[in-house]
Amino acid sequence: MMNNQNLWNHLPGEDTINRVVLPNGIIVLTKSDFNSPSVVISGYLNSGSIHDPEEKLGLSLFTSYALMRGSVFHRYRRIYNDLETAGATLGFSSSIQSTSFGGKSLVEDLPLLLKTLSEAMRWPIFPPVQLKILLSQIITGLQIREQDTTERASLKFDEVLFPNHPYGRSEEGSIETLRRIKRSDLVKFHQQFYGPSGMVITIVGAIEHQKAVDLVHSTLGDWENPIWVPPPTIPEVPNKKFSYREHISIPGKIQTDIIMGSYGPQRTSKEFLVASLGNNILGQFGMMGRIGEAVREKSGLAYYASTALNAWQSAGTWEITAGVNPNNIEKTIEIIQKEVFRFVSEPVSDQEFADSKSNLIGLVPLSIESNTGVANAIIRMERYKLGLNYLREYPGMISGISQEQILKVSQKYLDPNHLVIISAGT
Predict the structure, then answer these.
(1) Order of strands, edge to edge, in the sheet holding 256-264?
(2) β-pairing, 99-106 with 244-249?
(3) Which pLDDT belongs to residue 127?
(4) Structure letter (DSSP) for residue 14
(5) How many other C-beta atoms are found inside a 10 Å radius of the C-beta of residue 140?
(6) Were 92 and a residue from 64, 271, 274, 343 both cysteine, which residue would form a disulfide, CB within 3.0 to 4.6 Å?
(7) 321: how many CB neighbours lie within 10 A of its CB?
(8) Which class in CATH covers the domain with range 15-220?
């Protein structure tokens, strides 16, 4: 199947994905699929936690959550009643560099979905009563986070790798910073940082391209924000190797979570796919690759053990995680370090290499079986400037990677003697 060129030619590409830029800067991408009567929308604005003042971290996320709590035209209950009556969904969230949205409806309800999207982004009123309820919900989530060993370890890991940098700050903020946020802060944030410039929206499903574009134009085409402030440039992160060890004490936990790692390639780097293939071998394929085999299967030390690449526009991380009995922390770290040493000391085996290539290539068609999967893929292609033929070119790019390239890239980013190691638990 992997050699079937017809399969890859039928994946979404530049001849089936349409891209239009509206006069106000909104980028519209569409992909028609009439096998289902539904449509999916997905997209983002160029506004995120990078704009949050240090003393009010969480402002961007709070603002995004509050968009659906009432607009100039409709109150909270009416907004959700209209969506639920149509069986539609719509939601917002925020990350470091963007405010994202996503929704789904039957094709005949797409006008309602886009109208609701437009009203939420352009004319939110941030009702005080709803903000109070929402703030309470967010703070409850943060209180739960304080007792979550995985979350606490991950937050500290990012903080250590990215000191005084947007990637090292918590997008959710803290209980203290959230309590400093007033309604006027949300209003000002929305006025300054929400606008159409560079906004991206993808529509996938049972609708023709021009009809989809016309609907977006009729609901968002007249949006302007003359006082919009563009996001600042993310500072470059040097790939320096250093050691750091910290344990976060959270009493009463029967499991300790460990996160180990270092910097990784950014998403736009040519090294990213090489590292992805290597990461699959190290801690993903089968029973979580070499790490899972050594730590969990052979040694029986972990409830889970795996690796992951997190890649953004300006930096990335290469992480190894495990959940263990508190008595097994040091032994687990030792085994992981040995596996990392082996990984950066010699080329991966022919069998691992072939299996992981086949695995990564085979996952692509499965990831876009749904309209949501296609929409997410198109968003990634646009965000990281991968090109609209990326899915079709992917098998060739993976097939062209060599074992020597994996060794070279892994040696650049992973050093068993210079890792950030964070554990959280009893």
Answers:
(1) 244-249, 420-425, 256-264, 316-324, 302-311
(2) unpaired
(3) 98
(4) T
(5) 11
(6) 64
(7) 24
(8) alpha beta
Tokens of 286: 């089968």
pLDDT tens, residue by residue, 125-159: 999 999 999 999 999 999 999 999 999 999 999 99
- Do residues 237 and 289 lie in contact, with contact meaning Cβ atoms separated by under 8 Å? no
Contact (CB, 8 A) for 339 and 348: no
User: How does pLDDT run across 180-227, given as a tens digit for each residue?
Assistant: 999 999 999 999 999 999 999 999 999 999 999 999 999 999 999 999
Distance CA 257, CA 237 (A): 26
| Contact (Cβ atoms closer than 8 angstroms) between residue 39 and residue 93 | no
What letters, b where the CB count within 10 A reaches 16 and e where it falls short, cover 181-198?
A: beeebbeebbeebbbbeb
pLDDT, position 5: 66
What residue spans in the chain does CATH classification 3.30.830.10 cover?
15-220, 244-425
pLDDT at 238: 86
Placement of tokens 């990564």 in the chain: 360
CATH T-level assignment (fold) for domain 244-425: Cytochrome Bc1 Complex; Chain A, domain 1 (3.30.830)
Sign of CA dihedral 194, 196, 198, 203: positive
Phi, psi of 237 (to 5 degrees): -115, 115
What residues does 257 pair with on adjacent strands?
A: 323, 424
What are the per-10-residue average pLDDT scores of the chain (426 residues)?
A: 65 97 98 96 97 98 98 97 98 97 98 98 98 98 97 98 95 97 98 97 98 98 96 89 97 96 96 98 95 94 95 95 96 98 98 97 95 97 97 97 98 97 97
Smallest Cα–Cα separation from 154: which of 315, 270, 288, 321? Answer: 321
Q: For strand 420-425 and strand 316-324, is the pairing parallel, antiparallel, or unpaired? A: unpaired
Helix (H) or strand (E) holding 243: none
Q: Enter the tokens of residue 107.
A: 């094709």
Query: How far is the C-alpha of 39 from the C-alpha of 90, rounded, in Å?
Result: 12
pLDDT of residue 2: 45
Burial group, residue 426, by CB count within 10 angstroms (0-12, 13-18, 19+): middle
Helices (H), 19-127: 59-66, 76-85, 110-122
Residue with token string 């009203």 = 119
Looking up tokens 């239009």 gives 20
> Alpha-carbon distance 396 to 400, whole Å?
6
